[in-house]
Structure formats: structure tokens, C-alpha cells
Specification:
The protein is of the alpha+beta class and 569 residues long. It is built from 21 helices and 22 strands. Helix content is 38%, strand content 23%. Helix 3 runs antiparallel to helix 12. It binds adenosine monophosphate.
């Protein structure tokens, strides 16, 4: 029996430690004791979820239903549960408080199976059914277990570690070598279902990692672009011929075509098909093959003209989609293809892939191929950039045309390099930063935040380190929108994966979840910020930051990295 209690012990220990190594060691010793068939479920649960991101992992229950479930499981009146909730502010704590009878531990796979059932019930009477399923598990669990069951059900486990730590723990548990984490991560970029990967490691060891390939319906991490400081650097990075493509400012999308079954995934690997039924249907008419995986950018597009990013963000909605299809028409610009009719194209060069893409897409009003130029004459590349800017685009992405120009899932390498208008206008850079704290506003901004404490991602340490405090550039609407968004993510203390120095201590801490794009003028060093800081070095800091926009399409793991800043400095 895989006791859920053991996992719960790990959760509560991890809550009190911040040492990377200790967290990994705890997780790996837990995994070592499991049977291979339990490893899949344990991997999802360790991350506080019930499946890979590209599946529906939302149980569809909020505070109200949870309150009813606690009340029914422990025979306490609803009013009493609500009262306790208003004092503790955490329904997990409330459940464990009312769960007075000590029971034997509940089975881990049972907890998981019930949660999946809760997610899957729909239609009339589904709310009652969800409550009774949840209350059923609560009845069987110990107080400590019920606390975490509630947190997982609400999607609020917040242990402060992500896939990277888990991968390291899996490497230690099943291959005895921490160094294998890199290899597992490379595979995870292709097979983004951590549960499946973990199970394979437990059953067949590290050698099984080489066997994973693209599978329709399971998104691959997207390839990313590096940036340079001057346009001349592009010439040095790509001696000889290069391709320059227009850079579209919209939302990255990976579209999987499997006959009539067409699914769109976001950069965060979430299924966004329901937001873009118009794109799905346009792609079904434009694709000439039966099975394919396409990579591109969705933009707001009206009467043949690309519209600003802000417009497209209004399409990020669950309701009234039909109405918005008319209000905000969109188009997709495809720039890559990584799978065709049963074969992965990841190892093919960019010119080969582009040819296959061109051959398999019929352009239409809303399905386009990225415009580009290929040349060894650098003045032609410059011209192409200027023309793109005149057209109102953001810039260009220059791509290697060499034989080795493979598709690198999840990698930000030198095969793709972006050059944007902002870069060309002097030392003005944009950064994608994660909000980790807020400072109270004064005067006109009373009741709102006055400034946001923002962080970059330190990939080596798998944590967020502060880089700047942003207090300008917000319109009144921005204030409202950000205040609303923040509400869900305020927490009492800095989580284990955020490093904030005493000097920068914010008035309120924010769980890393919201990404904003910020324009800054100069990178300096500062004793107050922790970005890239170690015993011998001060942290990096961004001077004169200015808020540009919220990046709903990006998650914290997509933030600008310490390494990128180091390269710019
Ligand atoms: P950034 O988000 O600033 O790191 O720029 C990289 C992003 O540009 C990619 O993730 C794509 O979403 C987007 N993009 C727009 N046009 C292209 C293109 N032609 N080729 C590759 N990426 C593009």
C-alpha cells in the first residue's frame, strides 16, 4: 500500500526547509521506496497536481464546495467551518483542525484516483457529486493528510519547488547519479509528461530516456531565441548565409494535427484550443497532411493588418469566446514544423524543416507562413529589419541555416537570435520579470501597490532572485488589473524558491506566478538585489525600470534568466 501519509511527511518537512540539496534528498529517498507503478502518481502529487500541465488538471472546486465537503466529512456546521476559515485563511488548516478522529493513513493511489474522479464529473448534479467524493477521502484521512488533500484540490500546495528539483530527485533515486539530471531534463523537453518519464526511469533506468520522441497530443517545450547587444553581432554570430524572419508580437502556439483532431498548446504547455476555435478550423483547411506538429505565433489580425499584442490578450478568455472571435479576429503565422506523418523532424536542419513547412501549408486569410529573407549579404538583413519595423513589427529573429540547425526543444541557444526595435534604439532592453513582492502605495495609490518587487530566474539554483523595483509606467487600468491578479497570489512569507535580501523586504510577499515585461535602461550591481549574487559578488540590478505590460502568455519559468543578464552586462 502506498501510504499517502509518507508523502505528507515529506510535504511538511519541505515546508520548513529551503536548502536545495535537502529537498532533493528528501524527495529521492521517498521515491526510492516506491514500487515503479506508484512513481507516476507520486510525481504528479509531489508537484501538487494530478497530471501533466497539458491535460486538464483543474478539479473545478473552489472554497465554497470545499467548505461543504469539510462540513459533511466531519459533521461540523457550515457556519462553523466558515468562521474558522475567516480566522485561519487556509482551508487545509481548517480541515485538519476539525478532523479530530485519528485514522489510519489513506492510500496514495486512492487519493489520486478520487481526485481524478472529482475533476471528471460534469453536468447536472456534478457539484454535489464532487463534494461527496471529496468528503469521502477526507473521512478516511488523518488530520495532516486532510490538510494537504485540500491544498492540492485547490491547486495551492506551494512547496516552493518545481519540476527541476523533482528531476534531480529522480536522477538520484533511480540512477544513483545526480549528474544524470541534465539528460533527464533534455528528455523532459521532448516528453513533457513528468509522470510518464518518472515511471520509465523507475522501470528501465536512464537508458530509457533516449527512447522518447514527439507524440501527438503531448506538447514539446518550445525552442527559444538568444539576444545580442548590437546588430553587428548578428553578422559575427552567423558568418555567411543566414535567414531573417519577421518577429510577430503575439502568443506562441504549438499546434498538433491528428486528422480531424487539432489541438493548440501555449508556451506554458497548456491546452488553449478552446480560446481559438477559429484558428483550429482555419488550420484544418490549410494543412495538407494528416499528422503534423506546427510551431508559430498567433496575432490579432484585422483586414490584413497585425494588431498590437494588447488586443490579442483580450482573447485570453473562457467565456464569450464566440463573441470575441468576431470582435478580435486573429491569424497564425507558422515558422516551423517538427513532426510530419509519424516522423519527428527535430533532427532535420532549419532549411529542411522550412521546406517541409512550405510544402504542407496552404496559406489563407488567417493561416500564414512567417515572412523572411535568406542572404549572406548583411546589408540585406539590415534592410529586412528596417522594413519590418516600418511595418510596425517588433523586430526580427535571425536563424542559422547550417546543417546543424536542428530544433532544440526548450533551449535558448545561438541557432535563433532575436533583434528588436528597443535594442536598436540604444541601450534599452526589455525583461520578463516575475513579481515576488509589493510595496504599499501612498497618496493617490493608497489601497493599491505603489511598486512591485521583481525577480529574474536563476536556472542553476532553480529559484527567483530580485532584480528591480518597478514603480512607473502603469496606467490606471494597469493598476486595477494587476491589483486584481495579485489577490490570488499573496502569501505570508517568501517561499523557498525566492531569494529576497533584508534591504528589499516588501510589504507583502507574492508567490511567483505573474510575469510582467519591463523596459530598463542600465544594468548595474547592487548590494540589495540578489540576482546572480554570491559571497564574492554583488547582485545585478536594473536602473530606471518602466512597466510595459503583463505577459499572460508567460509563466515564471519563462522569465529572463540571471545568465542572460550576465551576458548583457
Ligand atoms: P522573446 O519572447 O522576446 O524571448 O522572443 C522569442 C519569441 O518570439 C518566441 O518565443 C516566439 O513566441 C516569438 N516569435 C515571433 N516571431 C517568430 C519567428 N518568426 N520565429 C521564432 N519565434 C518568433
Amino acid at each position: 500500500m502506498g501510504s499517502f501519509g509518507k508523502l505528507v511527511n515529506i510535504y511538511s518537512e519541505i515546508e520548513n526547509i529551503s536548502s536545495h540539496k535537502k529537498i532533493v534528498d528528501l524527495l529521492s529517498s521517498f521515491f526510492k521506496e516506491l514500487e515503479p507503478k506508484q512513481v507516476r502518481v507520486a510525481s504528479y502529487l509531489a508537484l501538487g497536481t494530478i497530471g501533466p500541465k497539458f491535460e486538464d488538471i483543474d478539479l473545478g472546486i473552489g472554497d465554497k464546495l470545499i467548505i461543504k465537503a469539510i462540513s459533511s466529512a466531519y459533521g461540523i456546521s457550515r457556519e462553523k467551518v466558515e468562521e474558522e476559515f475567516s480566522i485561519h485563511g487556509d482551508l487545509g488548516d481548517v480541515a485538519s483542525k476539525f478532523n479530530e478522529r485519528q485514522r489510519s493513513s489513506v492510500d496514495m493511489e486512492d487519493v489520486f484516483a478520487q481526485m481524478v474522479k472529482i475533476r471528471d464529473v460534469s453536468g447536472e448534479g456534478s457539484q454535489g457529486e464532487k463534494i461527496s467524493l471529496l468528503s469521502g477521502i477526507l473521512e478516511k484521512s488523518t488530520p495532516e493528510e486532510s490538510k494537504y488533500i485540500i491544498r492540492i484540490a485547490l491547486g495551492k500546495l506551494r512547496l516552493g519547488f518545481g519540476e527541476k528539483f523533482l528531476i534531480e530527485a529522480l536522477a538520484v533515486a533511480f540512477t544513483d547519479k545526480r549528474d544524470n539530471a541534465g539528460k533527464i531534463e533534455d528528455t523532459y523537453n521532448i516528453c513533457t509528461d513528468i509522470g510518464q518519464l518518472a515511471r520509465s526511469l523507475a522501470e528501465h533506468g536512464i537508458s530509457s530516456m533516449g527512447r522518447f520522441s514527439i507524440k501527438l497530443g503531448r506538447p514539446v517545450q518550445m525552442m527559444l531565441a538568444k539576444r545580442v547587444d548590437t546588430i553587428e553581432e548578428l553578422d559575427q554570430k552567423f558568418p555567411g548565409k543566414m535567414a531573417a524572419e519577421e518577429k510577430y508580437d503575439g502568443e506562441r502556439v504549438q499546434i498538433h494535427v491528428n486528422g480531424n483532431d487539432i489541438v493548440a498548446f501555449s508556451r506554458r504547455l497548456e491546452n488553449i484550443s478552446s480560446q481559438f476555435p477559429d484558428i483550429i478550423s482555419a488550420v484544418s483547411k490549410s494543412i495538407k497532411s494528416d499528422k503534423a506538429v506546427l510551431d508559430g505565433e498567433i496575432v490579432a489580425y484585422d483586414k490584413g493588418k497585425i494588431q498590437p499584442f494588447q488586443k490579442l490578450m483580450q482573447r485570453r478568455r473562457k467565456h464569450n469566446v464566440e463573441e470575441y472571435i468576431e470582435k478580435i479576429p486573429v491569424a497564425v503565422f507558422f515558422f516551423d514544423i517538427i513532426y510530419l506523418n509519424g516522423k519527428s523532424l527535430l533532427k532535420k536542419s532549419y532549411p529542411e524543416r522550412r521546406k517541409i513547412l512550405d510544402d504542407n501549408i496552404r496559406e489563407s486569410d488567417s493561416v500564414k507562413l512567417s515572412r523572411r529573407t535568406v542572404s549572406s549579404d548583411f546589408s540585406r538583413i539590415r534592410d529586412f529589419f528596417e522594413k519590418s519595423i516600418e511595418k510596425g513589427l517588433e523586430g526580427i529573429i535571425v536563424k542559422s541555416v547550417e546543417k546543424k540547425s536542428v530544433y532544440q526543444p526548450g533551449k535558448r541557444g545561438w541557432l535563433w537570435v532575436k533583434w528588436k526595435k528597443e535594442y536598436a534604439e540604444g541601450m534599452r532592453e526589455t525583461f520578463d520579470l516575475v513579481i515576488v513582492g509589493t510595496y504599499f502605495g501612498k497618496g493617490k495609490r493608497k489601497g493599491s501597490f505603489g511598486a512591485l518587487l521583481c525577480a529574474v530566474l536563476n536556472e542553476d539554483k532553480d529559484r527567483y532572485e530580485t532584480f528591480t523595483k518597478v514603480g512607473t509606467g502603469f496606467s490606471d487600468d494597469d493598476f486595477d488589473e494587476i491589483n486584481d491578479l495579485l489577490e490570488k497570489y499573496f502569501i505570508d512569507n517568501a517561499p523557498g524558491n525566492v531569494n529576497i535580501s533584508k534591504m528589499m523586504e516588501p510589504d507583502r510577499y507574492v508567490e511567483p506566478a505573474i510575469v510582467i515585461e519591463v523596459l530598463g535602461s542600465r544594468i548595474t550591481t547592487s548590494p540589495g538585489h540578489t540576482a546572480g549574487k554570491d559571497n564574492s559578488k554583488k547582485g545585478f540590478a536594473l536602473r530606471f525600470p518602466r512597466f510595459l505590460r503583463i505577459r499572460y502568455d508567460k509563466g515564471p519559468v519563462d522569465a529572463t534568466t540571471v545568465e542572460e543578464i550576465g551576458e548583457l552586462k
